[in-house]
Design a protein that fits this description.
245 residues; 9 helices
């Protein structure tokens, strides 16, 4: 499977989907009764993987069933080899991420004082990335603006806030983490941990984001973060998760 593009619902309306299969966690009339659309949960479940696998198998069967003569089969093989070569080129470019460059020990912080607003905490969490040139001041300011405008949509289960802004404001793929002294209310949601994530395009960050969803969903890993006593313990826990995916 080659992922052609990840897009927001706004981009979908403006551009349409160019691939053979659309995978979405959004429900709406624009997807109703469309055969090339699969609805999945926000965090991928086993039944979602089965749905995707079955649909892809059906598409491949239908494509191959139309070319049973020798010339047609040769064309199919040539097309497959070209697609596979293109896929491997993409893998060479994006799959082998230098995790130690994305997530460094100095990118992990623990809240030093309790007298900080949630806006100040987001700034504090993003500061290591700003210092090393991954982002500028505009990046964390847009995170704050989006939360103030749209609410606590960046807050996931276990009190994790995954802060992210426009890719145009990011200079380098990076991840930072801040553990709070205690939970803080952010637009009606309780937050105890803040991640700042800085993708630079629509594809290269996907492996890191996939591993982060594992972390955000796991009660066991969350408890390890709660129990960690210092920055290096936190770093080792998070790095073990993102480098395993």
């Amino acid at each position: 499977i080659v992922i052609e593009e990840c897009m927001s619902i706004q981009e979908y309306h403006e551009q349409g989907a160019q691939g053979e299969l659309v995978i979405t966690n959004l429900e709406g009339e624009e997807f109703k009764d469309q055969e090339n659309v699969i609805w999945i949960h926000t965090f991928l479940r086993d039944e979602d993987r089965m749905s995707i696998s079955n649909k892809v198998s059906k598409i491949l069967f239908q494509k191959s069933a139309d070319v049973l003569d020798e010339d047609g089969m040769n064309h199919l093989i040539t097309e497959y080899e070209a697609t596979n070569h293109d896929y491997m080129d993409k893998m060479d470019h994006s799959a082998f991420i230098n995790h130690s460059d994305v997530f460094k020990p100095e990118f992990v912080r623990m809240q030093k004082t309790q007298d900080m607003s949630w806006q100040e905490l987001i700034r504090y969490a993003a500061e290591p990335l700003i210092v090393q040139g991954y982002i500028g001041e505009a990046y964390y300011k847009q995170i704050i603006e989006n939360i103030e405008k749209y609410g606590s949509y960046m807050v996931f289960r276990n009190g994790c806030l995954l802060g992210h802004a426009s890719m145009e404001l990011s200079q380098k793929l990076g991840l930072s983490f801040l553990k709070l002294h205690q939970e803080m209310d952010v637009k009606g949601a309780q937050v105890s941990k803040i991640f700042i994530f800085t993708p630079i395009n629509k594809k290269d960050h996907i492996p890191i984001l996939t591993s982060l969803t594992t972390l955000l969903e796991s009660n066991e890993i969350d408890q390890m973060l709660v129990d960690a006593q210092n920055e290096m313990e936190l770093y080792n826990i998070i790095m073990s998760v993102i480098s395993a995916c």
